[in-house]
Backbone:
C-alpha cells in the first residue's frame, strides 16, 4: 500500500535540528510554521551573537602594554555585550525548542508505526 505522505527520516530531522540549523529539520518534517519560527529565531540569535566576537576583538586590541581599564571598556562595549548575550539566549531557546520538536516528531512517528 502506498501512502501519499512522504516518509520522514527521523535521524535526518534530528541531525539538522541539533547539528546544523535549528528549525530546518522541523520544517522538513512537515511542521512548517513552527520550523520557520525556530529557524528565524536561530538566525536572529546567530547574527546577534556575532556582537560577542566584536567585543572579543576589541578586548584583544586593548590588551597591549597600556593598563587595562575595565570600567571604560564595559562602558564602550556594554551595548554589544547585551546584544550578544540576547542573541546567544535566542539561539539557545531555538536549539532547545528544536530538540523538543525532534522528540515530539519521534514520538509521533513511533505511534504511527
Residues:
Amino acid at each position: 500500500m502506498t501512502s501519499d505522505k512522504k516518509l520522514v527520516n527521523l535521524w535526518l530531522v534530528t541531525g539538522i535540528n541539533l547539528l546544523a540549523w535549528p528549525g530546518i529539520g522541523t520544517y522538513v518534517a512537515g511542521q512548517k510554521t513552527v520550523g520557520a519560527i525556530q529557524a528565524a529565531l536561530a538566525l536572529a540569535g546567530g547574527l546577534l551573537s556575532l556582537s560577542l566576537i566584536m567585543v572579543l576583538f576589541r578586548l584583544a586590541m586593548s590588551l597591549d602594554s597600556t593598563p587595562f581599564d575595565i570600567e571604560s571598556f564595559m562602558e564602550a562595549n556594554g551595548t554589544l555585550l547585551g546584544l550578544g548575550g540576547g542573541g546567544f539566549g535566542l539561539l539557545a531557546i531555538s536549539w532547545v525548542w528544536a530538540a523538543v520538536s525532534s522528540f515530539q516528531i519521534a514520538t509521533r512517528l513511533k505511534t504511527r508505526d
Observations:
- The chain has four helices and no strands.
- Residues 45 and 89 are 7 Å apart (CA to CA).
- The chain has a mean pLDDT of 88.
